[in-house]
Every structure is written in C-alpha cells, then in structure tokens.
Design brief:
With 142 residues, the chain is α+β, with helices and mostly antiparallel strands. It is built from five helices and five strands. The chain has one domain: CBS-domain, CATH 3.10.580. The protein has a three-stranded mixed beta sheet. The protein has a two-stranded antiparallel sheet with strand order 4-5.
Amino acid sequence: MLISQILRAKGDAVFTVAPTNTVGRVAELLHSKRIGALVVTEGDRVVGIVSERDIVRAVAGGDGKVTSRPVSAYMTADVVFAEPGETLDSLLSRMTDRRFRHLPVVQAGRLVGIVSIGDLVKWKISEVEAEAHGLKAYIAGS
C-alpha cells in the first residue's frame, strides 16, 4: 500500500504553526485539535515539526517561562519527510528505526499531508486481515 492511498482515505489536512508561536499556544493547539504533532512552517516552507514529546521535554527541562517562549527553540528542525509514492512498510520501518511518531508528506517540495505511526499501524492491520481473509477463502474453496 502506498502513502498516497492512505492520505486519500484519511485526508490531507495538516495543522501548522509559525516558529514564533509560543510553546503555550502550541500545547493548546495540540490539545484542542487532539493531535500529536504540528508542522512548523514559514510561508510554504517547512522549517520544523513539534510534537507532544517536544513540549513535555521543554516543560520538564524549563524554568517556568517555557510556555511564553517561541516553539522554534524546542522544535525538531531537521525534519525527515515521507513521499506519497513510498510504501506503508518502508515508512513503518523508518519510523520504528528512527523513533518518529509523525512524518510530514511532501511532494515536489510541497506539504501534502502527514502520517502518524497510528495511521500506518491501522492500515497494516487492515492489510493483514484482508490477506488472512483471502487465504481462508482460498483454503475453504480448495
């Protein structure tokens, strides 16, 4: 299964913030949108990604003023991207190896979606269940 198929089914909405947004505002957005990460952009350019984990690390290591600081101080600036033509299995492997929970999807330099490890696991389970059903039907028909 290709990532483009997953995005078609789940949608291509990506919530973004500017690097100047405060950590407090980012935490509010993560909570209100019920998501685990926000892509940090300047115009059309992706400059980072910030996750719940980043916020927790900032608060745990901060001095009490963390929530008023810009998210650019705590985001991951070295963003790893996925492409729509990549396979589900290749991204599962990459995310597991590199311990990522969210990957922005970019096509021709343009942000076209985001996938989470939860999205990929859900689709992998569906894929395995469909295969098992097909095998059972084949065996029963033999």
